[in-house]
Specification:
Chain lengths: 112, 109
């Protein structure tokens, strides 16, 4: 069966360090992968999309990689700040199929 | 632009009751998807509406139904509520990417 696993339930890092979150998947061939941020009691907010033919995408302090051989995406936040504390979700999708599959999320806490 | 709005914010129902949740998509978006997010889990796709028709459905029973109106707003109806239906229900409207609303927290007692 299809599985999407995000590295750990919670990740604690010090302010200024780089946070690295992992999204692994099995029995799935996504055409693209998205990362979302979700704050408590709020809906997810779209951050980045990376397609299967792209290795890396960047947006300000965010970087996403996508390795379809390893079936893994890494999400990096450089120079992390306490305001980056949130749950981060990865979501996999295929074209012409609106049933996006989400991981359970990783709760990131950045300590001052 | 108000973004995606949902109502109500919170709702408490008892087992066996029926509930209707509402969503207004972001301006200019004609496609609405509904998701169920249980505590500590990622969102699960329920269904998507486009041009007032259900375009695709996830793995949810027929107790979950929906509707889309000509102004693109949408409703999610859940009949015969079960305790396991307690969750955050999210609506998302799609343009080039998905925009989620704040969700409706449903508690079934």
């Amino acid at each position: 069966s299809q599985k999407i696993e995000q590295n750990s339930e919670a990740l604690n890092i010090q302010e200024g360090k780089t946070a690295t979150l992992t999204c692994n998947y099995t029995n799935y061939s996504p055409a693209y992968l998205q990362w979302y941020r979700q704050d408590p009691g709020r809906g997810p907010v779209f951050l980045l999309l990376i397609r299967e033919n792209e290795k890396e995408k960047r947006k300000e302090r965010l970087k996403v990689t996508f390795d379809t051989t390893l079936k893994q995406s890494l999400f990096h936040i450089t120079a992390s700040q306490p305001a980056d504390s949130a749950t981060y979700l990865c979501a996999l999708g295929v074209y012409n199929n609106n049933d996006m599959r989400f991981g359970a999320g990783t709760r990131l806490t950045v300590k001052p | 632009d108000a973004g995606v709005t949902q109502s109500p914010t919170h709702l408490i129902k008892t087992r066996g009751q029926q509930v209707t949740l509402r969503c207004s998509p972001k301006s200019g978006h004609d496609t609405v998807s509904w998701y169920q997010q249980a505590l500590g889990q990622g969102p699960q796709f329920i269904f998507q509406y486009y041009e007032e028709e259900e375009r695709q459905r996830g793995n949810f029973p027929d107790r979950f139904s929906g509707h889309q109106f000509p102004n693109y707003s949408s409703e999610l109806n859940v009949n015969a509520l079960l305790l396991g239906d307690s969750a955050l229900y999210l609506c998302a409207s799609s343009g080039d990417t998905q925009y989620f609303g704040p969700g409706t927290r449903l508690t079934v007692l």
